[in-house]
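Researcher: Predict the fold of Fe2OG dioxygenase domain-containing protein.
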Amino acid sequence: MEGDHSASSFTSAVSLDKLGVSSIPQRYVLPPSQRPSPHVPMISTTLPIIDLSTLWDQSVISRTIDEIGIACKEIGCFQVINHEIDQSVMDEALEVATEFFNLPNDEKMRLFSQDVHKPVRYGTSLNQARDEVYCWRDFIKHYSYPISDWIHMWPSNPSNYREKMGKYVKAVQVLQNQLLEIIFESLGLNRSYLHEEINGGSQTLAVNCYPACPQPGLTLGIHPHSDYGSITVLLQTRSGLEIKDKNNNWVPVPFVEGALVVQLGDQMEVMSNGQYKSVIHRATVNGDDKRFSIVSLHSFAMDRKMGPALELVNDQHPKSYKEFCFREFLDFISGNDITKGRFLDTLKMKKL
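Model: Structure tokens for Fe2OG dioxygenase domain-containing protein follow.
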């Protein structure tokens, strides 16, 4: 795949790290009000850790579903353990991710693009064509479901990237199906709700590298945002993810060995008619250590319109959101700086 002509002016965060810069370029420096605060005390919000093995135990399954429902309503985020994805599959996916970002710059730049509609693209920031301030991260994003449609376009270097990342992609796709069934049940919907739409949906993998940063207090790895899809499943190598709680406090998500972080996206907030909230999150960076994450974003099909579930709309809970599809979200981020406004806010219907 040929890179963008705009690549000539592009220097990635990983490249700056390899150059050993002692200060970050001005385009990465956030205004003081948007910088991470180094002295915020630990917030008391507790992020639930859900043991998914309890779903096979009829004596506790209802309690687990209730716990997930509370997490979706109160926080929009939880962690899962005993999720049946082998540690070796997760480790090997992170290994090939590390190898990819260690490639010579010219090799990675073959996949560079500023077009957010490209099914496979390497880049930095969120949308470097629009962002006023860049994010201190590099990424490779690729469409991943159905895997047979897209895997031939993924990076061919490292040579085992497709094999090892493909194993993880398949496993996390199975997990997201299971998680969606539980979340639907916690809303009082049928487990098989939107089954066909989910099977015909999309999965986008965002593989991120957050290099060590010489001035971590001036920048972020990712600016605050919510994901567009139904749910996001995140694998991380160390802490750095932070979520905004209902009191507008930033809460660090602890690193739990072997756990996966589950975040609700805008589609789930719309589908639940506002009962559940998509979580606003950001990534901080570290002065000493790199952080890697593999983010699996699950969505309905590109042009499948999504609105509140009719079962969750009534006189007490009128329809609160307009319908939308994934393509409309992509059009929004290609034309807007998302630090200045959420896509979700454009969907909210004004109350009379």
